[in-house]
Amino acid sequence: MSNNKFIAGCCLVVIGCAAAGLLGQSNDAAAFEKLKALKGDWVGKMADGSLATSSFRISATGSVVVQMLAEGTEMEMPTMYHLDGDRLMATHYCAAGNQPRMVLEPGQDLSKALKFRFLDATNLKNPDEGHMHRVTFQFIDKDHIRQEWTYLEKGKETPEVFDLVRKP
């Protein structure tokens, strides 16, 4: 093999390894980047037609995404999304007075949705007490999302759907 072919082959191996490193980003890290892209203010409607507002902010030098639901109202509820090692977590500070922690479900197609499921909670006296149990993001396009929050109380699930549009 000539030197030029050997050098070209080495370059391809190095480029391939670098690309694999970028493409090898964990699913949860890629999902976190998708949440960061939601930065801004959102408005829309809930399933019953009432107004829904939400905002997404990036904080703590990019290590957390803060979502504020019903910002500026007495029902305001923040949710913090962050990586914990290789897993993406969400901690929801609920108007019910508890703080459910959820984790991203594995094996998802991130181009379509992000689904978080209940892990545990603080200030939850027992599992039957009402708490947010799941949250799902559906990505319609870069300016339209649907968020479904599922509240669980005494074994009964109550979904709350928010259809949101990014404010210009």
Structural account:
With 168 residues, the chain is α+β, with helices and mostly antiparallel strands. It has a single domain, classed as Calycin beta-barrel core domain (Lipocalin). Helices cover 18% and strands 50% of the residues. The chain is built from two helices and ten strands. It has helices spanning 3-23, 27-36, and strands at residues 40-46, 51-59, 64-69, 77-84, 87-92, 99-104, 113-122, 131-141, 144-153, 156-166. A ten-stranded antiparallel barrel has the order 1-2-3-4-5-6-7-8-9-10. The longest helix is centred in the N-terminal third of the chain and has 21 residues, at 3-23. The N and C termini lie far apart (58 Å).
What's the short version?
The protein is of the alpha+beta class and 168 residues long. The protein is built from two helices and ten strands; from the N terminus they run ααββββββββββ.
Low-confidence stretches: 4-22
Q: Give the strand order of the largest sheet, numbering strands 1, 2, ... along the chain.
A: 1-2-3-4-5-6-7-8-9-10
Total domain modules: 1
> Can you identify the CATH class?
Mainly Beta
Termini separation (Å)? 58 Å
Let me know the average pLDDT.
Answer: 87
Number of helices: 2
| Form type | globular
Q: How can the largest sheet be summarized?
A: 10 strands, antiparallel, barrel
Find the CATH superfamily: Calycin beta-barrel core domain
Name the helicity range.
10-25%
